[in-house]
Amino acid sequence: MFDYFAVLICVIFGLALTHVLRGLAKLIQMRHEVRPYWVHIIWTFNVVIFVLAIWWGMFYWRGLRDWSAEWFYFMATYAILQFMWASMLYPPEFPAGLNCEEYFLKNRYWFFGIQTAVLLMDIPETLVKGAAHLRAVPKEYPFLISSLLVISVVAMFSRSRRVQGVLGVAWLLITLGYTFFIPVMSRIVGGE
Asked: What are the residue boundaries of the structural domains of the chain, listed by start?
């Protein structure tokens, strides 16, 4: 069953990454015709890193032998929401004169709302993985998920450019720390 599931997830995550990376490439190509916004670019990197990390984490599901239709639909919805989240960052077409700051701030309710839904779905996905003994839940996970949820909710309601910048950078640092630094430190401290 995992192989069947993995194909679907790969397609959906691939579409999410394609949309975001295409948007970033288009932004670079049209840099003289559009107004980039550094916070928007930070969130582009945040989405790419998060989707890749979740895609990597999906591999642990290969150990699940009994798949229910409910769990399959839950996981598919989780992936679809990540695609929807990624698609909120860039318009399908770039009109000349696009102001990325205005676009980002006008879209923030949808972007951060869907982001919040993705994070809330991550909680049962992670806990079930742990309960099924597919992967231990890292002890830092509660800090990660609560920090990212606070960032999402505050960013959804803030129009402040300074707040948006701080939250985007904070998300990036927290996610990179959790993804790369914590596993290395655990191996060093744990003596693995």
From this structure: 2-190
Q: Which residue from 15, 21, 16, 22 is spatially nearest to 93, judged by alpha carbons? A: 22
**174 in Cβ contact with 147 (< 8 Å):** yes
CA–CA distance, 118 with 113 (Å, rounded to integer): 9
Tell me the whole-structure pTM to 2 decimals: 0.89
* 115-140 confidence digits (pLDDT tens): 999 999 999 999 998 888 888 888 88
Question: Exposed e or buried b for every residue in 151-169, given b needs 16+ CB within 10 A?
Answer: bbebbeebeeeeebebbbe
8 Å CB contact between 120 and 77: no
How would you classify residue 90: left for phi > 0, otherwise alpha for psi between -120 and 50, otherwise beta? Answer: beta
Contact (CB, 8 A) for 79 and 12 = yes
**Dihedral sign for Cα atoms in the order 25, 30, 32, 35:** negative
